Automatic annotation (TrEMBL):
<keyword id="KW-0675">Receptor</keyword>
<dbReference type="Pfam" id="PF03480">
    <property type="entry name" value="DctP"/>
</dbReference>
<dbReference type="GO" id="GO:0030246">
    <property type="term" value="F:carbohydrate binding"/>
</dbReference>
<dbReference type="InterPro" id="IPR038404">
    <property type="entry name" value="TRAP_DctP_sf"/>
</dbReference>
<dbReference type="InterPro" id="IPR018389">
    <property type="entry name" value="DctP_fam"/>
</dbReference>
<protein>
    <submittedName>
        <fullName>Tripartite ATP-independent transporter DctP family solute receptor</fullName>
    </submittedName>
</protein>
<dbReference type="GO" id="GO:0055085">
    <property type="term" value="P:transmembrane transport"/>
</dbReference>
<keyword id="KW-0732">Signal</keyword>
<dbReference type="InterPro" id="IPR004682">
    <property type="entry name" value="TRAP_DctP"/>
</dbReference>
<dbReference type="GO" id="GO:0030288">
    <property type="term" value="C:outer membrane-bounded periplasmic space"/>
</dbReference>
Amino acid sequence: MAKVSSAPLGQFSESLQVLSLPFIFRDIEHQHAVLRGPIGEELMTDLEAEGFKGLSFFDAGFRSVTNAVRPIRKPEDLEGLQIRVMGSQPLIETINAFGATAVPMGQGEVYVALQQGVIDGWENNEPTVITFNMQEVAEYYSYTRHVSIPDILIMRNDLFADLDEETKEAIMDAAEATAIYQSSIWGDYVGQAKKELKEEGMIFNEVDNIEDFQEVVTPIYEKYGQQIPNGEELIESIVNY
């Protein structure tokens, strides 16, 4: 078993790429409703066809831009900045649409890359910033909240299929209970991480108008609506859920 981001899993199961689209979730309550309902079940079924058994979705926070140059208040503030992203095509296109240059890079390289000026910033949630001490090399945290890409608890589908029904049921029940518990402690973790980051000098700011950021990423929805099987219908069902 492993807990992994749904973003790289989208390279195997295309429908999961919708979870990396910018601003597709209004808030965490909307995300939970989508992923714990029939849409989430559909996405897990698609994942099974690629050899993975999805057990449950886990919170991974809303990602915002952190950088060492200036506060980000409008898309224009990102122009000319090199921003690290993980290997997710929708995420790469989102950062590029904002006006920055997305730089795919492994997490282990980010601190040194910021320290040496190879990149200007990255994007992630507050707990991840404090975990990797990124406040030491990028002091501005700007609440773009552009994506909320969930993690997924997975295991090998063939291994799960070989289990007896009682064990399968026990695993799925435990995964569901764990997801609810993880969500509750994640919220506490975000608050504690922000408090610690402020104490260490990180500067937080809200953007001037989130609609300015939403407007520039509209073409991404159009592209993935065409690219993903039943993409337009799936995107619409999530947005209007």
